[in-house]
Amino acid sequence: MTNATPVSRSSWFQRFLLPGFALKAVIIGGGYATGRELAEYFVPSGPWGGLAAMLLATLICTTVAAITFMLARALNAYDYRSFFQQLLGRGWIAFEISYLIFVILILAVFGAAAGAIGAATFGWPELLGSVVLAVAIVGTTSLGTGAVEQLFKYASMLIYAVYALFIVFALSSFGDRIGASFAAAPAPSGDWMAGGLTYASYNIVGAVIILPVLRHLTSQRDALIAGLIAGPLTMLPAILFFVAMMAFYPGIGGETLPSDFLLRQMAVPGFQMVFQLMIFVALLESGVGAIHAINERIAGALKTRSRPAPGALARAAIGAVILTGCMFVAARIGLVDLIASGYSFLAWLFLAVYVVPLLTFGVYRLIRTPRPAQSELPA
Prior knowledge:
There is one protein chain. By secondary structure, the chain is mostly helical. The chain has a single domain, classed as Amino acid/polyamine transporter I, CATH 1.20.1740.10. The chain contains 14 helices and no strands. Helix 1 (12-34) runs parallel beside helix 10 (220-245) and helix 5 (92-122) packs across helix 6. The chain is globular.
């Protein structure tokens, strides 16, 4: 049973790029956009080791996204509840519990990041930045799937444009240091694979969070192509960011906001404000993706009982309740500790309840399930 029906007339963008933009929207979040996640999982492996780990993470995200998208269409499952009911049977509740833990942690991270950005950029009390983010998330999710998809589209355009400028300014400001850092670094060695595996394992859950946008797919070919595009679309800005960070390796690994540190080194008038605005938008779309998935899960459950989906006020109330608790966690713990202590636990959790079942039983189901009929292609 599902809460959405595939849309017959879908644009090229909706079929092939929207899933990747949505996946990036969920993953980019507080740690990726600020550089804190990159400092935690990739910087310790050095320039070449960290880059190798990021390429490994890209490969894992691409593979899992492609299989997830194809299986979701084969099963006609466009919310995470219906997807895992068919993948795990009665064990689907294990994913739901894991996802709720994930939402609490990542929204706490987003709140802490928004607070840190507000304090660093405007001198605000840290709580104010968190509150502004929460209000924006609640307002957007209350408007439903159409508004969420529009946010993913236009926010992604802004984010890619700002990251392109970021790498240009980084190369012009301290490109010689980047080159010297890579030239002096040894080849990848040690446990660099662990960083890529951990990062991908807890982030790739985004592939099931964004299932509602897959209703635009018209064929299994669409699902495969969208998945193959989604991984690189998601990781490209992170790779560019990591390359810039290597100009100040290894010290940058200790920065709470590596992005703010790099922007100060660039000293490009006005760009620091633009970049911090972009990070806020990234936090917004990630938070919206997480809350929207819960709203769609609730809508799907109500539909199975022949009851109407939550309206705008109900969606806003659900988001407000969740965000209030998560922002409290953020205020008590802080960004660095949240990422360091929580994400590794999530990686093992999602490996057990999502990645391993998907790559075993899910692939089996995908092979054995009759291919759904191709929807009408766009005129």
